[in-house]
UniProtKB/TrEMBL annotation:
Pfam family, one: SNF
The organism's taxonomic lineage, starting at the top: Eukaryota, Metazoa, Ecdysozoa, Arthropoda, Hexapoda
Binding site for Na(+): 140, 239, 243
Domain of life, source organism: Eukaryota
Keywords: Amino-acid transport, Glycoprotein, Ion transport, Membrane, Metal-binding, Sodium, Sodium transport, Symport, Transmembrane, Transmembrane helix, Transport
Molecular function in Gene Ontology: amino acid:sodium symporter activity; L-amino acid transmembrane transporter activity; metal ion binding
Name of the protein: Sodium-dependent nutrient amino acid transporter 1
Length: 425
């Protein structure tokens, strides 16, 4: 959300520039993965060996626009964001329907759409495929990010959550399918224009799909390319605002619940300033590297782990039975077997891999021979006696070097000193 809003305005300009010269990239003879558009707009660096660089002032100004809109929405409160949501939710569908009609009239669009919906059965057992699918669902439904619980806290107690969940889940799936058909329909047209033998050659993953592949395809439209470029990026801008308003409102709700004496306007401005300051990092030449790093390690995988442990907590600590009784108390309906099975056992596939870490740790602890459990636990964090090179002579020299190092260390080191020596000594 942070980056999509920031790049949208500048990406429109980049698309318009290429429209004036449809073959600015050499068209058929220029490999798509070498298209320099990302360097024109993002000033993207090829590596970050020398650091991430300095922010681009134009992108910083573009970033300021969405955060100003978000701040004003937060100041108005949840009722205001609810009213704004009508526009933020309806407008993208209008644009998507227009783009879908246009995509269906393009040459090669059918090939792109078929590429999107045709399963690749040879990859069905790859773990990363399922990981990508799960994280996509998590992000599109904002599961484990607090948004759903925050918005539901403003509902009436007896609100029909079963109906709401069903509607939101179905609409989310249909919207994802609709967006995919539009994007890959246009990409299919791009592959046709470039005479590419395979659509894979013109597809980029991540942010490159929306900000490089799609703009280049729109630039090659022969009918109103400027209109479709503006419509597409305005849609991305609106979607980014909508997503970020939800996340920012969640943070604001948590702060206001913990510190009710704080003024809403003060909290809103503080959130906007912090969010804007963090977003500046992504406007640097190395910002995309930071984005990819945080996306995987700080968001995608973390959300998946949190979801699994959340399911385990509610299913086996709070209890599936009690959840079902609570729902019956709220709605007056009994929960079906399908939901009970999902809540109780839906986490098992993930847990079978992740829970091996604590399982083997417990096994190692039980295998130790020390009589005292403290000594047993302490020795679990030390290498075994046979650890080292396989060659006996090298093994002896290795253990001698380790012994000399240990003897050189002070015996009365504090825990903080040991941590410091472990990293910097």
């Amino acid at each position: 959300s942070i980056t999509s809003s920031a790049y949208a305005c500048d990406a429109i300009k980049a698309t318009s520039n290429s429209i004036s010269n449809p073959y600015v990239h050499g068209a058929l003879n220029y490999p798509f993965h070498q298209f320099p558009r990302s360097k024109d707009v993002l000033k993207e660096a090829s590596t970050i060996h020398d650091g991430i660089g300095t922010p681009d002032w134009r992108l910083v100004l573009c970033l300021l626009v969405p955060w100003t809109c978000i701040c004003l929405t937060l100041i108005k409160g949840i009722k205001s964001s609810g009213k704004v949501a009508y526009f933020l939710a309806i407008f993208p569908y209008v644009v998507m329907l227009v783009l879908l009609v246009r995509a269906c009239t393009l040459e090669g669009a059918a090939d792109g759409m078929l590429y999107f919906i045709k399963p690749q059965w040879d990859r069905i057992l790859e773990a990363k495929v399922w990981y990508a699918a799960v994280t996509q669902v998590f992000f599109s439904l904002t599961i484990c990010f607090g948004n759903v619980m925050m918005y539901s806290s403003y509902n009436r107690f007896h609100n029909n959550v079963y109906r709401d969940v069903t509607i939101v889940s179905i609409m989310d799936t249909l919207t994802s399918m609709l967006a995919g058909l539009i994007v890959f329909g246009v990409i299919g047209h791009l592959a046709h224009v470039l005479d590419a033998p395979d659509i894979k050659q013109v597809v980029r993953g991540g942010a490159g799909l929306a900000f490089i592949t799609y703009p280049d395809a729109i630039a090659k439209f022969t009918f109103w390319p400027q209109f479709f470029a503006i419509a597409f990026f305005l849609m991305l801008f609106v979607l980014g605002i909508g997503s970020n308003v939800g996340m920012a409102t969640t943070i604001m709700t948590v702060i206001r619940d913990r510190f009710p004496h704080l003024q809403p306007a003060l909290v809103a401005v503080g959130i906007a300033v912090v969010g804007f300051a963090i977003g500046i990092i992504y406007t640097t030449p190395g910002g995309q590297y930071v984005l990819d790093f945080l996306d995987f390690y700080g968001a995608s995988f973390v959300a998946l782990v949190l979801a699994v442990f959340e399911m385990m907590t509610f299913a086996w600590i709070y209890g599936v039975g009690r959840i079902c009784r609570d729902i019956e108390f709220m709605l007056g309906i009994k929960t079906g077997l399908y939901w009970r099975v999902c809540w109780a056992f839906g986490w098992c596939i993930f847990a079978a891999g992740v829970l091996q870490l604590p399982a083997w740790a417990i096994y190692t602890f039980l295998k130790r021979k020390e009589p005292d459990w403290r000594d047993r636990l302490l020795h679990c964090f030390k290498p075994t006696h046979d650890w080292g090179p396989e060659d006996p002579e090298l093994n002896a020299k290795y253990h001698e070097s380790v012994y000399k190092h240990e003897q050189s260390l002070p015996r009365d080191r504090s825990l903080a000193r040991r941590m410091f020596d472990n990293v910097f000594s």
